[in-house]
Amino acid sequence: MLNKSNIIIYPFLLLALTINLIVPQSSWASEQIFLLPDAFQTQDQTTRLEVNLNRRRVFVYQGKNLIKSYPIAVGRRNWETPTGSFQVLQLLQNPKWIHPITGKAIPGGAPGNPLGNYWIGFWTNGRNWVGFHGTPNPETVGKAVSHGCLRMYNRDIEELFQLVSLGTPVTVIQ
Questions:
Q1: Distances (CA, A) of 158 to 9, 70, 116
Q2: Could you tell me the pLDDT band of residue 7, with boundaries at 50, 70 and 90?
Q3: Quick one: what percent of the chain has pLDDT higher than 90?
Q4: Using an 8 Å Cβ cutoff, are 116 and 97 in contact?
Q5: Measuring CA to CA, which residue among 157, 150, 162 is closest to residue 122?
Q6: Which helix (H) or strand (E) holds 125?
Q7: Cα pseudo-dihedral 86, 87, 93, 97, rounded to 10
């Protein structure tokens, strides 16, 4: 039975933040129950991305909370964006673009570079990559026009780039 005399609250007990009830293994503690105040309970604050291809949006979650969403362009017919569970594998500023068919390269930061200034890669087959990037053609955002990549407005990809890190989960659904 719990009463005020056998409950001790230790807000500084950092090792126990992932559980609600701690029962120490020493003999003196057999009568004590340690409860952490709600303010000290950990919450899953992991950033994750969910891409909805039909809605043509990427949703940014922190734990279970939706914190932002952005419009995207998706892969066109025969170059569809892959679906499944992935993670961020590359984060590049001023990425070089290599045409997936011809192999022609456009240097990062060059005016005609179709990737813009930011790249967040999350899928590869060892040769080709798919990821989020900016575009010099903002009118394409919201359409199925890419070689599988997710095009974003330049201001949006710059903001998203700051919200993710290597290993951030990316789920792509229809």
A1: 44, 12, 10
A2: very low
A3: 66
A4: no
A5: 150
A6: none
A7: -20
Of 36-45, 77-86, 108-117, 148-157, which range is least confident?
36-45
Model pLDDT, residue 10: 39
Strand partners, 68: 60
Residue 42 DSSP class: -
Find, among 124, 131, 151, 147, the residue nearest to 57 by Cα: 151
In the chain, the N- to C-terminal Cα span, in Å, equals 52
d(CA 25, CA 113): 62
* Longest CA span, the chain: 76
Q: How far is CA 144 from the centre of its chain?
A: 22
Contact 152, 72 (CB under 8 A): yes
Active-site residues, by number, are: 133, 149
